[in-house]
Amino acid sequence: MKKKRVSIKDVAREAGVSIATISYVLNNKKGESISDETINRVREAIKKLNYVPNLSARSLVSKRSNLIGVVIPQAEAGKEFMFYNPFYGEFLSSVEYEARKKGFHLLISGTEADQKYIQVAQNRGLDGIIIVGIYPDSFFQELKQCQIPIVLVDSYCSDHYFHSIGINDRHGGYLATKHLIEKGHRKIAFISGMVKENGVNSNRLLGYKDALEEYGIDFDEKLLYLGDTNFEYGIKAGARLANSKNGETAAFATADILAVGVIKGLKENGLRVPEDISVVGFDDVYLARITDPSLTTVRQNIAEKGRQAAEIIIQTIENEIKEKRDIILPVDIVERDSVKDIN
Amino acid sequence: MKKKRVSIKDVAREAGVSIATISYVLNNKKGESISDETINRVREAIKKLNYVPNLSARSLVSKRSNLIGVVIPQAEAGKEFMFYNPFYGEFLSSVEYEARKKGFHLLISGTEADQKYIQVAQNRGLDGIIIVGIYPDSFFQELKQCQIPIVLVDSYCSDHYFHSIGINDRHGGYLATKHLIEKGHRKIAFISGMVKENGVNSNRLLGYKDALEEYGIDFDEKLLYLGDTNFEYGIKAGARLANSKNGETAAFATADILAVGVIKGLKENGLRVPEDISVVGFDDVYLARITDPSLTTVRQNIAEKGRQAAEIIIQTIENEIKEKRDIILPVDIVERDSVKDIN
DNA sequence: TTGAAAGCGCTAACAG
DNA sequence: CTGTTAGCGCTTTCAA
């Protein structure tokens, strides 16, 4: 049995004032001015009784939960998070930190069925939601009904209702490919997870093509290796690449976790990186510095992405911004040891 | 302005019954039996109105929030999570999955000051808390006051109040060291983060000593490299190791993330792994398979740890278990490519 | 400057 | 089998 928690009433009794007064000093309303003396008396009572406000009660009346939902993609429907990709951990870490500083908590959750999440959002009275990744359009449409501020991260959903934050994926793909081309590579494999239309990967592919075109290199379907964005597929792609008859001398993998798998797959098949094949990744997660060779990759500022996602959602909740925000964070290429100059 | 949400009253009106009836079918109380016809009528009304219960209201009266708090260590006080160590991501992923299946949500949060978290727990009416890592004893003592079910993960707090789940760290340390010894190594560095008394690392160190003793090898303080459990310190330790005058031929790092840093530091200083120095890690996170060489390491089942942590806390919440649980998950050594047999 | 009182949406006796 | 009702702890008019 839980011990009975001390409520605002107890504090009121202790301080010899009404519960309204307690509420006022708690929220230090500007409208209601309370005498310093009363404030002190209340403060003391609160401290003495060890009073902690009940947020359920508060949110019941104020319609504010101070809770932000974070939706992270799952490996498969109804499965665990994709946390083996360090990107999500790094992102979440940053969101949580920013939210905490502003007095918000994070409710994290995968999504059984997309429908279900909307229920959760309403159940819990989420003040805002940060959604990472791409989901069926129907999900976004339903989400709009909730009237909850939402930030979409790395989604190319163009709906005017949502805030969005992402990077210039196309430019990133371009930079990666161009870097490789400038190092003398012409046959460049493109290795990626699902290329959903108008998604992160499809834009990176566009950038890849941009660079090819700029340098007068013909695009070759056969150099596309499409699977899943995970380590295992990277290995598979690396193995295929090692035995390819297409003469690739380099590969652009659209995620570091993939790139690292590619390197592994390559090595397992007797090829060295970068001596035999050069590899460029994407994201610049922690991993990129950890592996050997360390990874030349397209850097995006993951922490900043998380920070801004949190900031935008909170500002919207607090009515500090009313208009829609669309943020594109810069990318650049960071050269490490996985690319060889073959000029 | 948020559109007014439909409440239980609206459903009652729609279905032509009282709000109590709605509540009954919602919670399908065994005590109260409702006629099938009414149930159906209510169900339809719910569907028609798109009614979603308000959990704040519910938890206000029922004292149940269906929220589980997860406390994850931070890099430094008031900073981001230690999510660069993949251990936490993998753990959290598993906890969330299990909790979600059972209808619970996760509130994740770092802890500004330890005090603050207790406030959060009370603020939100957390039904249970999963705490990963070691905290000051005063924190645990205060936590007890809350009367909330708590599972401690990887803590050696012996307080009878808490459930605990962990692994046999000492045995793990023993296995790692023994493995190295059996491969012919005698000068084995012990590389670790802080060795807090009665913590995970101190137990692993105990196991290290056990193995040494078993094989009649003298323990040598000089082979201890103590810093932080992160990649950077691993590099530093690896560098020191490479220039050591102590003749180490192997190292046991108490976390994979550390081990991977060690390998990096070694390589940067011209040594090869495992040819020149063998390395054993601990955890068997995803990373261990990713790096080159892949890491021989002490495996613990992180997903299972998360699953059981969630299971225990939920069973306690639902009063399915009343007694205290202390779970020790097994460890074993998984041989990969970072150890050389020098016999 | 403070207090009384009306709910927020829901559960759980208790009646009928 | 179903409805009435009294709160849960808090915010917020409105009055004093």
From TrEMBL, chains A, B:
InterPro entries for the chain: HTH_LacI, LacI/GalR-like_sensor, Lambda_DNA-bd_dom_sf, Peripla_BP_I
Residue span(s) of domain HTH lacI-type: 6-62
Superkingdom of origin organism: Bacteria
One MF term in the entry's GO annotations: transcription cis-regulatory region binding
Gene3D superfamilies: 3.40.50.2300, lambda repressor-like DNA-binding domains (1.10.260.40)
Keywords associated with the record: DNA-binding, Transcription, Transcription regulation
PANTHER family from the UniProt entry: LACI-RELATED TRANSCRIPTIONAL REPRESSOR, XYLOSE OPERON REGULATORY PROTEIN
UniProt name for this protein: LacI family transcriptional regulator
Source organism (scientific name): Clostridium thermosuccinogenes
